[in-house]
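Operator note (shift B, R.M.): manual run for HAMP domain-containing protein requested after the automated queue skipped it. Running by hand, logging everything below so the morning shift can see what happened. Input copied straight from the record, untouched. If output looks odd, do not overwrite the archive copy; leave it for review.
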Amino acid sequence: MRGKIIAVFAVIVLMVGGLSYTLARASLGSISASGEAPRALAAAMAQLQVDGLVLERWLASHASGPRLREPFNAGTAPARAEAATSAANAIREAVAASPELAKTPPSLVVLVDRKGVVLGRNASALMRGDDLGAVYPSLKRAIEQGVTGSDVWVSRARNEQLLASYAPVRDDAGQIVGAVAVGTALNDERLSNASERTSGRILVVAVQSGDGLDVVAKSRNASPQLVSALTASPAKDGALHALGSGRMVDLGGLPAEYRAVGQALDGYGDGRRAVLLSIAELKAPGSAGALLWPVLGVTALGLVLVVVAAYFLDAYVSRPISEIEDGLLAIMNGRTDLRFGIEHAELGGLVFRLNSLLNQLLGVQEDETDADGRPSRAPASASFRDALEVDERMAALSADEIPADAKALLEEPEDAYYARIFREYIAAKRSLGNPVDHITRDAFVARLKASEQELGQKHGKPMRYKIEVRGKEIVLLAVPLA
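Run finished. Output pasted below as returned.
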């Protein structure tokens, strides 16, 4: 029985533990799915916009310095180029030393004239004479309007993959003579840094390439399989739709445990230059994994408690049943006097009825007294069978030898005699703590008369009784009347 109890309750504990873990894991997944990806996208978008805005403000405050004007005032093209390279190097060093720009070190610093043609860049003679205004029209518009701006500079042909910010440069008269542009790397490290500084979710930046999607950068937790799913339909179609509409769009076609959203990278160029994607894992593996061990621990504790409880429950139920079984077997083998003395809250009634059944089957009078020897239930008046102990020592005395107080019995009327004897007998029984509710006068008198008649026939003379209490016994003292 113990094994069955353990097996049943162990299955219940395991089912409850497994169901609890499943429901908790599903709930965590639902919490993650409800808004993690959109929140991560908004946070990363804001971070990249702030990076560009801070760099714009820094450039605007330094673009009016005399060091930046010198290249535009040089007399020859080679002199302007060399001066532009020197100024670009100085700008790069100043940007790298600036505390607010320390997390986005510059990869490119370039000076351009009013048409967007490159005068020179930092650390190299490359790009001199390149028409950046034609390649990146937003730069030329910013120079024409005399405002700062930021743009996404991605060109596979030019091997450029930058987030660029720029500010106009003015001469002493306040006329725009060109602009200074600083480009920071748009690569996996940049997006990983942005992810760590915001939500920790997967981030991807992509641009449109013909009818396809070209992934420019991704955070380090983006797997190749995930990137491949993003560049294929329907995820690709959703990303291109987000890029064209400027709205946040849910992306389909990803593995079931991921949810992705995309939105055009606002604040850079015309806001349609690149699309930023955020991907959240629906099942919240960290939280679910952390939940697994507590659930397993509680389940293990439940199994231990099941074993302990089963042991005590088995002992509480099985041992009395085993005693009953052994007792019945002994009675069948000849021990007809054996009765069960099992005290049990649940089986006590069964044990009492078994003992009663055995007494009836074997013709044994049941003991109906309590622990103090008193009847456990009041008998009916017709069942008065109390023993009447008689003392016959005075029965052989002659009339002259009878004591004076006993001679009064000779003169007492019969009805008064029996009424008095009954009252004395009842009083004596009560003084000893014996029940008297079952004793009626008629039954007592009938017994008393029968006893007097039997004793009178034995001694050849009429008899009457006196009631005496001796210890815990009531004695009828026989007194002869002649």
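Quick read of the result: The chain is about 50% helix and 20% strand. The chain has two domains: 37-281, 381-480.
Leaving this for review. - R.M.
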